[in-house]
Amino acid sequence: MAKQIKITWTKSYIGCPKTQRSTIKSLGLRKLQHSVIKEDCPEIRGQVGKVQHLVTVEEID
Description:
about 60 residues; three-stranded antiparallel beta sheet; CATH 3.30.1390.20
């Protein structure tokens, strides 16, 4: 079974570059404290790494 990660948007992106705003939207996050569950793959990890100061990540088995 593939591992999954739970991504929660915890901090506002006001004052952040437009690329980070679009990364938050592309992860499927809609508003603060919203969470999504994604497959753990290098593409998603790269997006999370770009906005790591705005989100929290939990691994789910």
